[in-house]
Amino acid sequence: xxxxxxxxxxxxxxRGTPQxxxxxxxARLRSGGxxxxxxxxxxxxxxxxxxxxxxAVPGPRLPNPRLTGLGSGLFCVVAMFLLxxxxxxxxxxxxxxxxxxxxxxxxxxxLWVRAGDVLxxxxxxxxxxxxxLIPAADGNGGLLGxxxxxxxxxxxxxxxxxxxxxxxxxxxxxxxxxxxRRRRRRT
Length: 187
Hints:
By secondary structure, the protein is mostly helical.
């Protein structure tokens, strides 16, 4: 059986092949100059910006990961579950320790989520708090006892939950305002 091509054979040059001199590249059309091709020029410009930024900041740089909304949620939930296990092992489920450990996770989650997904941080933080309570809560008597321990922990440690969610919400609000201002300046 004969198979036909899905694209016409005369659809222009492939990526990476030189263009004829009489056809302007998209980069030249946008910038108005006779520059390099679009992708190569953008990569070199981006590399130059990164190099300038690295030279401008003296001393060691702190890690600054940018997680997606899903990635930040996964980070927060896993971190709180592990901290809940650590609290149960070392401090026998002492809830104020769990609450104090919750605050830096909230701050890191709000700082590490990328700009387009910042609104997910205040949503995932309370969910992660509840997931972390599963190993940390004092629950005797099987599944129902553990569930009662989680609900009791949520009721008695609501202050830590509210403070952590407030921290994440304030950080996200500031970052979102900065992001919107930067986008408006560009246009």
